[in-house]
Structures are given as C-alpha cells and as structure tokens.
Structure to design on (308 residues):
C-alpha cells in the first residue's frame, strides 16, 4: 500500500528515526560528491497554492539529485484552479506521476487528495500543519545537540501550522515542548488537547514568553501573520509585540540555546536582526536541512516506504 506524509502524528518513533538516519546518509554522500540516483526515471508533481522559496527549491533540487525530476504546478495554471475536483485530479495525476507534494490552505484538501491518489502524497504546508519543516528542524537539533531526547524546545509566538506540528512531534518523540502564545492565538485546540494527553515528555502552554523559554535548549519562532492572514497583519503586530524573540528573551534560556525559525522571517517583528544573525542562530543550517530530510522522505515513500 502506498504511504503518504500528511502529518507527523501518524509516524512512529521508528519512522522518525529512519528518516533522520537516511537524511544523515544522504547529506554525507552529497557533501562527499557521491552520486546517488535511486529515483531515476521518477517524477514528483508539486502543486503550489501558496508562495514558497525553500519548499519549492529543496524538493525540486532534491528530486534532481536523486535522479528524478520535479514538475512545478501552480494551482491557478491547472484545471484545479478552474474547479476540477480533487478526486478526478488525484486519480489522473496518479497515472502520470510517482508522488505529489501539495502546499495549500486546507488540510482536508490534502487528505482528500491522498485518499484518491494511488501514489504517495506529501503535505508541503497547510493552514494546519507543516510536517516537512518540523522533520527538518528535529534533524537539525540532532546535529547540533546530538539528540532530541530530553531537549526542551520553546516555541514562542503564533499557535499556527508550525506550532501545531511541533505538538504532533512531541506526542511521538521524547522531548519537552513549551509553548508561549498570546491568549486567543493558542495552537489548534484538538491537536493541543491530544498532545497534552499523549506527550512523551510533556507539553506546556504559557501566555508569558519569559516563562515559556526558561531553561530552553531551543527557542523557535515563526511569523505572526501566516500566508492567508494578511488582512490581520496590523492587528497581530500589536498583539504579538511582547512575544518578540530578542536578546532579553533569549537570556532566560539555557546558555547554549540555539535559535530556530522556519523562515521566511519578518525581521524586527517576531525576531530581531541581532538574534537571527547572532551566534546562537542556526536558521540557515535549518533551511539547508529541508533538502536532506525531504530527500530522505522522497526516497522512502517513492520506493515503497518502510514507514507506517
Ligand atoms: N519554511 C518554508 O516552508 O519556507 P518556504 O515558504 O519558503 O517554502
Ligand atoms: N506559518 C507560516 C510558515 C511559512 C513557512 C505560514 O504558514 O505562512
């Protein structure tokens, strides 16, 4: 049966570790210049309903490096943009392609696509979740801290798709997750409730960012206004003002704290130049790892998949 990557909740710890081990292997091979083309002759379709720099480039380059090709499909240029339904599109695309990556608004659309597709479907970001990002983030934490086990990750800011996916990861892997979000901007309530019940080590929700980051090994933030929320930008800027990741905030974390951000950053809003460009910041390594981790996912899914 084909495998999808629609969320992180459906992965087992073994699945995560398989992806990380494979990503480390692929990264080492790439750095040594060893060609590795297990996906020769295979094609990934990439449906984009929202903008992207990292996701598009890393998937496209990743497929090329693995010997395959990727097709960029802007929704508005396909018949999807003129109302062709998801089921027909998924069934037809499954006859041409070997896997599909989708970036869109609704998580339900990606799930519906996966239901009708007979090839693997990868969630490249929805309003609810961003699984490829958090897989790459945890891989980056392993590189910097040797393990994710027992690490305290503090997520400060909007309870958005990135925050929701961190919660899913913390239900499956043994690390602490501390969320610092303003009232009314907490993560998805169902994901949070389930996460708090099932977390392997613990998930805390704070409204005070200083409490959230106390003793943290990782401070993570994301934009205050996600794609699709542009109308709320000014309102959000005021509400989130005290949730900025700045020098004062990071002084409350552990002395070897690393600073992460999925990017793109709105410098001067959720994070200062001083912090994102500072010694603790690992945001560029984090962005690079999208390539290695997604290649690992592509190889696993497109070759039949050894994850559940
Ligand atoms: N972090 C991330 O998904 O970046 P893009 O929006 O540039 O793809
Ligand atoms: N939360 C952001 C992440 C961008 C990668 C958004 O959805 O716009």
């Amino acid at each position: 049966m084909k495998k999808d990557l629609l969320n992180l909740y459906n992965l087992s710890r073994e699945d995560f570790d398989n992806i990380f081990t494979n990503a480390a292997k692929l990264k080492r091979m790439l750095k040594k210049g060893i060609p590795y083309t297990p996906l020769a002759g295979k094609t990934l379709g990439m449906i984009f309903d929202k903008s992207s720099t990292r996701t598009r480039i890393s998937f496209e380059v990743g497929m090329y490096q693995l010997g395959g090709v990727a097709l960029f499909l802007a929704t508005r240029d396909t018949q999807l943009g003129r109302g062709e339904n998801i089921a027909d599109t998924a069934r037809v695309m499954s006859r041409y392609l070997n896997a599909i990556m989708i970036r869109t608004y609704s998580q339900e659309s990606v799930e519906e696509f996966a239901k009708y597709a007979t090839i693997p479907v990868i969630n490249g970001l929805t309003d609810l979740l961003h699984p490829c990002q958090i897989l790459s983030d945890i891989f980056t934490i392993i590189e910097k801290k040797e393990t994710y086990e027992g690490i305290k990750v503090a997520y400060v800011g909007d309870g958005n798709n990135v925050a929701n996916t961190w919660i899913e990861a913390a239900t499956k892997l043994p690390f602490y997750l501390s969320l610092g979000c303003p009232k009314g901007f907490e993560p998805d309530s169902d994901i949070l409730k389930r996460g708090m019940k099932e977390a392997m080590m613990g998930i805390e929700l704070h409204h005070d960012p200083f409490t959230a980051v106390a003793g943290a090994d990782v401070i993570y933030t994301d934009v205050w206004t996600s794609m699709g929320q542009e109308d709320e930008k000014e309102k959000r800027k005021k509400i989130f003002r005290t949730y900025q990741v700045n020098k004062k905030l990071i002084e409350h974390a552990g002395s070897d704290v690393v600073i992460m951000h999925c990017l793109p950053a709105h410098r001067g809003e959720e994070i200062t130049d001083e912090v994102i460009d500072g010694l603790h910041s690992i945001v560029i390594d984090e962005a690079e790892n999208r390539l290695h981790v997604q290649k690992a996912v592509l190889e696993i899914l497109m070759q039949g998949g050894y994850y559940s």
Summary: The first strand starts at residue 43 and ends at 48. The mean pLDDT is 97. The domain at 13-130+289-302 is CATH 3.40.50.1370 (Rossmann fold). The pocket of norvaline (ligand 2) is lined by residues 125, 160-162, 222-223, 226-227, 262 (CB under 6 Å).
